[in-house]
Every structure is written in structure tokens, then in C-alpha cells.
Amino acid sequence: MTASNIPRRDFLAASGAALGAMLPLSARRDPFSGFPDWSSTIGGPAATAADRMAWWREARFGMFIHFGLYSVLGGEWGGKTNYGEWIRNNAKIPIDEYDKMLGRFNPIEFNANRIAKMAADAGMKYLVITTKHHDGFCLWPTKQTEWCVRNTPYKQDIMRAVADACRAHGVKPCWYHSIMDWHHPDYLPRRDWEKDTRPDTGAQFDRFVQYLHAEVEELLTQYGEMGVIWFDGEWEGTWSQELGASLLEHCHKVSPNTLVNSRVSKQPANGLEAKLSKPALGDFGTPEQKIPDRGLPGVDWESCITMNQNWGYNKADKDFKSLPKLVEMLIETSSKGGNLLLNIGPTGTGAVPPESVDRLAGLHDWMKVHGEAIHGTEASPFEGAAFRATRKGKRLNVFLPEWPAQGELLLPGVTATPTKVRLLGGANRSLPARGTEQGLVVTLPAARSNAVCSVLSLDMPTAVPTAY
Ligand code: GLC
Domain span at residue 393? Predict the structure, then answer.
């Protein structure tokens, strides 16, 4: 038997001594991301860092799902309606009171199959769902705590349903997992507002770390190979770079090919720069609710963005982004070389809000025609142009949310003559294009090909350069 045909768990057992010991932090770095190249320390069935990242770089678009006990409250507490997944902290709900939520969690409308299909149809290639948010509640029947779905009327393993449904629809299942935990007795610090009512006497943070490792091990070994484990809540004073490094090692020991986001690192909570500050651990950076102005050259990154204002379900929040805005965000991330992780927050009964269903359907319509200009593409070769673009081998894609004046489009600096120029979803004949001193000028038909955003696709004679 070679390493490659031994099932993963057996391989790990067989390699016991080497893998059981603490692995040194890799000295090698992935040349693309600059993050540590773990493949060099794991060996065996692990792919190289570039191979491990390949599906994720190709994907460009994923679904984020924030779902948990807080979803049942729909953002409302004590007459206020502006809460989300932080409700226990922000509304200062005492732990005994919040514990009663267990009896109210029965999301009978949660349909993992339908959600995974909506994601796949919208062109989302992976799906990241909360396994545990900051309130500590686990959505799978973990052996590590009673504060989990097993003790709710629902009882069922949500992680199992999601992992299976995703695989059935060709979507990579991925886990979000909060490091910060407002429920575990050993987690420190206590919230300021509950220090008196919930003293930290006897709490031992190192026991919490063991608990965290055990939970992560369940999540990475019980549901097949996971695409990503996406940590969060790393900014508290108790988390350190050493703890981040050891958690990362643990993830790679139990599941060498699962990607880990950079929030496993200790990072101060001061915005985008902090989320990406180096040296960071993990495979990719996670700008939140924003798309970096000029992308992040040399770093793999994924912008996570909500469809409305909240991550978790908030019944009063109707401030949903329009379909053209969502398409524009997807184009912007792709054209800057990053991924978009677009969030939905199912209701307490597990239903996807109708506004999100509508937008996912709209994304489906747009992506089924234009997805080839997003998936597997790289950043725009145009610096400072008035339009966004992506490239993939010899293919150049130019996005046209507005129709250019006079029906002509100048592609500055392009000197080569394309072999074919067409609008995706439009007629198959090649559009006229002529070389000028400033670059290539394409003559467009009178009518736009898509109401949301048309895509001009050019087949160039050789690979499109990284910059024109
Ligand atoms: C923040 C929030 C959290 C949300 C996350 C998504 O860190 O604390 O509620 O899950 O962002 O990126």
C-alpha cells in the first residue's frame, strides 16, 4: 500500500510518531500567498500548497451562512430590533436566560439540499456555514459539550446535512468556527457586563484550548474532507500567535488539505489592514464588508460581505443590496484577483429569507451566461481603466454595466489582434475591432446583451499578460 491509497485516518495512524509530535512551523512559504507552505511538513497525501489552493482560487465565489440560536430571536430583544448574531453580548442577555434558547431551536424549514442547490445554481463553488458562533452553541451533536443541537427539539446534525448536500451539488463544504466563546466556562475573558454575575473563578483558558482543538478535530474528521475551516473571534487578549500556530498545526495534522483562513492568527481588531497584517498564519486573508481598493497583490484574499446589513437573521433588516450591486461586487472582487463570500442569514425556523432567494435566483441567471468570466480567472490586466476585466489564459473578459458612448470601447494598450470578439450570451459572430495608437477599439452592437452587466469576451492570440 502506498501513502496515496491508505485512507486518511489510517495514514495518520500509520505515521503516528511523526505526526503525533508537534510539527515545526514550516520554513517554506507558498510563493503566491507568502503564507507558510504546510505541505512540506505534512508529507504523505497532502498536496502542495499551490495544489491545495487551486480549487479555492478557481472558485472565486462562495456562500456564507450565519445560522444559530440567535437566528430564533431575529435580532429582537427588549423592544429593540437592531441585533444580529452578537445579540447575547449586545443586548446583555444573562447566560441563564440565553440557555433557554435551546428549547426554542427547531429549524424544521432548514433544507440543506435546497440551500446547496441555490448556491450551486448561483455559481458559488463553496459554502461556509457557522458550526459555532461567538455564543458557543454548536450546530452539530459534539461530544465536547451539552451546549449543542443534540439538546434542542431539532436534535439533528446540521453539519452532516450541509456537508452531504454540498457534495451532492458539487459545492465544497466549509466550516466557520468561532474561537471566541461566550458560553464555555473556561473561556476568558468574561464579558465586562457579566463579570459579577458570571465570575471567572476556576476558569482555565488552556482547558478551553483543548476543547477548541477537540471540536475542530471532530469537525475536520467526521464529515469527510472539508474545503476550509474559517476561524473568527481571534482578537481577544487571551489569543496569541503561539495558540494560532498550534491550532493551525492541529488542523493540518488532522486534515492536511483543508485550507485555514488568516483569522487563526492573533490580530488586533483594527480593521482590514489588521486582518491582513503579516506575518499572518493561514492560507488567505479575509477583508470584511469591504473590497480592498487595489486588491491585495501577492496575497490570496476573500471579501466576506452581507446581503443586507446583518450576518445573522434580523427580521427588521430589509436593507438588501440590489442584484446589480451584488453582481458588481462579484465582478470587482474577481477583477482584483480575490474571492467573494456572500452571506445569507436563515430565519430561526431555517428558511432562507425571500429577498435572499430572489437575489440568488438573479445571480443564477447572470452567472449561467457569464460565469466563465468569473470562475478560474485572474486579476484585470488594465491599471486605472474605466472598466473592470478578468483574464484566463488567452481569454480577456471586459465587464460593461453601462453601454459605452458611441457604441465603441477602447481597450488601452492592447496591440494584438483578437481572433474573436463577442458578447457572452450574444450573437456568435465576431464583433469588429481595430487597432489604434491608444489600443484596440471594439465596435459594439446597438443593444446591450444583458440588463445587469454585459460581458465582452476576447480571444487573444497568446496568453493575456498580467498588465497591458
Ligand atoms: C465579525 C463578527 C461576526 C461575523 C464575522 C464575519 O468578526 O464578529 O459576527 O461572523 O465578522 O466575518
Answer: 388-459
